[in-house]
Amino acid sequence: MKKRLWAFVAVIALVIAACGGDGADTTTTAAGGDEPTTTAGGGDEPTTTAGGGGGEGVVVGISWNNYAQPRWAKADGPAIIAAVEAAGGTVIEKDANDSAEQQLADVDALIAEGAQALIILAKDAEAILPAVQRAKDAGIPVIGYDRLIADPDAFYITFNNQGVGTIMAEVITAAVPAGNYAIVKGHSADPNADFLRAGMEESVDGNPDINIVCEDYNDNWDTTNALNMMTACLAANNNEIDAVISENDSMATGVVAALDAVGLAGTVPVTGQDGDLPALNRVALGTQLVSVWKDAFGLGQTAGEVAIQLAQGVALEDVVAPDDLQDHVFPEAGLEATPFDADGVQVWSIILKPTPITRDNLNLVIELGWEPKEAVCDGVPAGEVEACG
């Protein structure tokens, strides 16, 4: 698979990281007229997306539920922008700041401002449906980005979220095959929280030696809420918790803080996902067992290229993923769009592959340029972790 430079991504990240405010929006174009490069995976050979053009003049709108998760500004946003601009298009963006009501208004505004395709990271999968319908009525194609929108006309681009849950469960049950488990789930209105939980069933619920003593949703996937939930769980169980499945890295930050407060950090294994830098550092330090890495540069590149295709009239079932995606994200079902069953509603989808990151393969995120070695390995004693040697 082809490899690519990251310098352009770093520049764009600085630009879009400033977006914010209720309904704040930006329009992004290629800096200084330089030819953009694709972003998934790192490496040294620049390439362009969408055939290096063909989307001239296309305007792609992005509706973010928030920009609070580190990966949105670090990877997803820059990769979408790079892909759209490489095809000759431009991007306009709005940040709903975790308000479902604001996101409805944001989508309406993107339509009014001339978006020809919409990429929506939905705050609430149900609440967003009226805005999706208004886009459809205006003839504007919609992509449900990393979170399912259960509408047959909304294309779905994500990672294998149930597979992420399965990976978490398999890794942690291999380390702790019996004992008291806590499960910190994500936002209740985000279908991903339940997809992840479903992926855990075989290894966790099917194990008679595992006792789930605490389990609940955490609205907004919030770090502080996760800390409070874990603190309460520890207190209710006399600190007798043997393993914690946290559905993402931001919540794992709160979980590990609660464990640290009672002297259990590094003793009780914790899961997460996203490959956030603090989590990767915790993996290196031994206070987090695994972060399931979803290389969001690959996801953003895919969304940007698909948005161009849809804006040009390509049918949902004829959409294809970029052919230069790297092996660690390459869709297991192949490049062509595949049907996805969303509780009886069939949507067309491209689903990328996640990668578990443990101490044994930390070198992968370093070698592919996701995070620098000095940051991942900060505080790790010499010789303790091979990737940090």
Task: Report on the architecture of this protein.
Strand 2 (59-64), helix 2 (70-86) and strand 3 form a beta-alpha-beta unit. The protein contains twelve helices and 14 strands. It has helices at 7-16, 70-86, 100-112, 129-137, 161-175, 191-205, 223-236, 249-261, 277-285, 296-311, 363-367, 373-376; strands at 24-28, 59-64, 90-95, 117-120, 142-145, 154-159, 179-185, 210-217, 243-246, 271-273, 290-293, 338-342, 345-352, 355-357. It has an eight-stranded mixed sheet, with helices on both faces. Strands 8-7-9 form a three-stranded parallel sheet, with helices on both faces. The chain has 389 residues and is an alpha/beta fold. It has two domains: 7-160 and 295-354, Response regulator (Rossmann fold), CATH 3.40.50.2300; 162-293 and 357-388, Response regulator (Rossmann fold), CATH 3.40.50.2300.
Shape: globular
Q: Gyration radius, to the nearest Å?
A: 20 Å
CATH C-level category of the largest domain: Alpha Beta
Number of strands: 14
* Secondary-structure class: alpha/beta
How many alpha or pi helices?
12
Which whole number gives the mean pLDDT? 88
Largest β sheet strand count, sense and barrel closure: 8 strands, mixed
Distance between the termini: 28 Å
* Count of separate structural domains: 2
CATH-defined topology of the largest domain: Rossmann fold
Q: At the fourth CATH level, what is the homologous superfamily of the largest domain?
A: Response regulator
Helicity level: 25-40%
